[in-house]
Amino acid sequence: MPRSVNHVASRARRKKILKLTRGYFGCRRNVWTVAKNTWEKGLTYAYRDRKDKKGNFRALWIQRINAAARMEDLSYSKLMGLIHKAGIQINRKVLADLALNNPAAFKAVVDKVKAEA
Q1: CA distance 105 to 38
Q2: pTM check: above 0.70
């Protein structure tokens, strides 16, 4: 009795992954085992970097706040300390957005904080 194999399903499985590896360099796009390994490793990078993105954005916000604070003769750490001491509930994301897009509002926050201190 001849061996029964499901070529249709196995080929479809391979085609699905090879379609996902379009744009990769060299053998990584068209050699099945290399493409599969590359694609699987890419999934782990994607998972890891979704976590890293949060830290990267926090670092960016801190740099923006620091740059704007130094224009007001304060360092980042002194500004954040004064904000917490004044009891102002504003997060770094919003503060960085104010520093970048609305310098007048950022200056108002800094002036309020300086007046409290």
Answers
A1: 48
A2: yes
